[in-house]
Structure formats: C-alpha cells, structure tokens
Design goal:
This protein is an alpha/beta fold. It has 19 helices and 13 strands. It has two domains: about 240 residues, Rossmann fold; about 160 residues, Rossmann fold (3-Layer(aba) Sandwich), CATH 3.40.50.2000. The protein is globular, with a radius of gyration of 21 Å.
Length: about 425
C-alpha cells in the first residue's frame, strides 16, 4: 500500500545525500515522498523528481560569512555552535512548515538536527522514525566515540560511561532550550524534544552506517535497523558522470591522489590544499583537488599538468580510480572512501570527524593526521605509508559494496503502520 513519507534534514551534502537516496528508493517503490531541507538544495532534489519543501536555516548564508564558517568547523565548540546558533534560531518557523506538511503524511523520517519534525509528529500523533548517520550520534557505552571536547571517553568502562552520558543528557535542556520552549508553547511534553545524542523512537531507529564500520551494540536505540550507508553523490539528477576534462586527466597517467574536504570543511580549508600542493609536487605525483564551488578561483592557480583542480566530482566515479583518498572524515565522504576500497588519510576538522578517523585507522584502511599538525612533510610520510593499507581497504570496499542500505531502510519504513492522527 502506497504511503506518504515526509523526510526532513538540515546540514551539508553529507546530511542531505543519504536521505535523498532513501527518498528516491521510496519513490521507485511507488510511495509519495516529500523532502524538506534548506532552499539551497531545491534544484538538486527536484531534479530527481522528489517533491521539495523549503525549511530554514538557509545553508547558503554560511558560505558567505567567513566567521560563521570558522566557528562551524571549530574543533571543540563547532557542534554546539551549529546547534545553538545555526539550527535552533529558526526552529519555530521550520516547525510550522513541517506541521502543515505532516498533516497529509503517514510517516515522518528525520535527521538528528531537523528538530521541528519530532515536535510535529508529537502534535499530530504520527509515527516518527529516527536516524543515526554516524557512530558518534549514538553515544554507545560499549563502543564510545572520540569527541574532541571529551577525548577520554574511549578509555572509560561502560559503567562509568553510562553515568557520564546521563550528565550529558541532562544538558539537553541547555543545548536545545528553544526546542523545549516551543514544545511548552505547543502544549507538548518535554519528551517530544529528542535527546541530542542517542535518541530513540518506538516506531523505529534506522542506523544509516555499515555494521562493518561499527558493530551493533547492546545500547543501540531500539528497535534498531542497521541499514548500511545510503549512497548518493550526483551533482544533480542529470549529472552522474565525471566532467570530460577530469576523465581525460585520469586516463592520461597513473592513478592520482584524491584530495577533498567534503562540503562543510571545504568552507574553512586552512592550509589543506596548499600543503598538499607542496607535497604532491615534491613527490612528483599526480593529484585531483576537489576544492568546492566558492574556492575554485582561489585555488585554480595550483593546477598544473600533474594536479587537476575541480569544484566537485561524484566520489563513486572518482575515488575508485585514485591511489589514496585524503579527506576530512565527514561521514558521507568516509562512506564513499570505504566503498571505493582504496587507502585513505583522514585529516579531521570537527564534529564526528575525529571519531570517524579513529575508526578508519582501527579498521586498518588508512592513517590520520590531526588538522593542527597537517603539513607537507607529514603528508608525504603518510602518502608513502598508505599503500600498506591496500589489502584491508580492498576487503572493506567489498563488504560495503555488498550492502543495500536504501532497500533495507525502505523495507523498515514500509513496515511502519500509520497512527490515528490528531487534526
């Protein structure tokens, strides 16, 4: 039976793409899907034939403010800043839009920071399915994340961690104060506001990363469905292949090093590309630099016959043809690098990136260099050592490629029964 599914997500491409992949999967299975996100993504979503709903914040505003970009990627305070200063201020406007959209929906599915959606679900008594894109979002006591502000967590026992987590959850009222204010205004219980990390829903909790990246733990939100990584990386519905100039570059020589900072860290790249340029030239190697739309003119002069400068390229088309992927450790980029089956070097900036980097090293698929220590010298050393991870990377790539996360997610959504709605 066909359902109307309302999906809401806010953030970078890494926050949009998994949900767009699921939306496309649901549409192909005959369901009606609406995807709500920043107006910046309207063209991309609609190019795939998915109905788009614009909600704040306007992500494009971040690109034009250097101070906001810097604070969003701050190592220790970046996550708090993004939540309280970017996502929370427009929550009431986003909630009102989502509430109206939800009146015709059967099931709601949301990302961690689409905070207006669970409130709309509670208001209308609709089933709300939570999602976790990365291990750090779960706060497991049995496999704790590496959080920049609390680097000691992985060294603690589960018993002590449970106590620490209780303290963190008590901070929910401070971090999400505007969400609690809105819940009270709407006559909703405090439980309608999700916990910032480790939230669970009785209607279902989709784990949108691979079981090979982190095994399911006893304290995962229940009922949990481990789906794997949902993949989407086209620039839009009409652009799935590499641009001809990049294709010609790849065919002209040995596999290049691939440098990318995703779509969030690239807004505050620091010395990443300049140090990489020095290292690659000294080594006499080939490389592709994905520098983003706004940085293209700034870094175009770094290009030469061995270094190709591009705004963007579908990672699934580029990374498997590279020698080593050097990236920031965002979960979307990490997933693509794992699927590509090539060694990687992770240079984490903020948020979940240090934890993703640590897990990649633990899996034996690559190395990591701290952002503050990143230099041409350390990069050269890491690039020379990276091929030792080749076999582990290839094996991991095979495992990731065997999963069909979109199908698993769609099956769980289809199993969810609509609730008697409140008007």
């Amino acid at each position: 039976m066909s359902k109307h599914v309302l999906i809401a997500t806010v953030g970078s491409f890494g926050d949009l793409h998994p949900y767009l992949a699921i939306a496309i999967g649901l549409k192909q299975r005959g369901h009606h899907v609406s995807l709500a996100s920043s107006a910046f993504y309207r063209e991309k979503v609609e190019s795939e034939g998915i109905r788009f709903v614009s909600i704040p914040p306007d992500i494009s505003a971040i690109e034009h403010d250097a101070e906001i970009r810097r604070r969003c990627m701050a190592t220790f305070d970046g996550t708090r800043y993004v939540v309280q200063e970017v996502f929370l201020p427009p929550i009431e406007e986003a909630y009102q839009i989502l509430l109206e959209e939800a009146r015709s929906a059967d099931i709601l599915l949301g990302s961690l920071f689409a905070l207006g959606l669970p409130l709309a679900a509670a208001k209308l008594n609709l089933p709300y399915i939570t999602t976790s894109l990365q291990p750090a979002a779960i706060l497991s006591a049995f496999d704790p994340p590496l959080i920049p502000a609390m680097p000691f967590l992985p060294m603690m026992s589960p018993g002590i961690l449970r106590t620490v987590y209780k303290g963190l959850h008590q901070m929910n009222g401070f971090l999400l104060n505007k969400a609690y204010d809105l819940a009270r205004k709407e006559g909703l219980p405090a439980t309608a506001v999700p916990r910032l990390f480790g939230h669970s829903s009785p209607h279902g909790n989709l784990i949108l990363f691979s079981k090979h990246f982190m095994k399911e733990q006893p304290d995962f939100p229940q009922p949990a469905t481990m789906c794997g990584f949902p993949f989407y990386d086209k620039l839009d519905g009409n652009s799935a292949m590499l641009e001809p100039e990049l294709e010609a570059f790849l065919q002209a020589g040995e596999p290049p090093y691939v440098f990318t900072l995703g779509t969030s860290a690239v807004l505050d790249p620091g010395r990443f590309y300049t140090e990489a340029h020095t290292a690659v030239n000294r080594m006499g190697k080939r490389a592709v630099f994905l520098v983003g739309r706004d940085n293209y003119d700034r870094y175009l002069s770094l290009g030469n016959d061995r270094i190709f400068i591009a705004r963007y390229a579908p990672h699934s088309q580029l990374m498997p043809r590279g020698a080593v992927t050097i990236h920031q450790g965002g979960i979307g980029t990490t997933a693509q690098a794992l699927r590509a089956g090539k060694p990687m070097i992770v240079v984490p900036y903020s948020h979940d990136q240090p934890d993703n980097a640590r897990r990649c090293v633990g899996l034996g698929v690559g190395l990591t260099i701290p952002r503050k220590r990143f230099s041409a010298k350390l990069l050269e050393e890491a690039l020379r050592a990276a091929p030792k991870s080749g076999e582990s990377a290839r094996s991991m790539g095979t495992l990731i490629q065997s999963e069909d996360a979109v199908a698993r997610a769609c099956e769980k959504i289809e199993e969810t029964q609509p609730s008697p709605r409140r008007i």
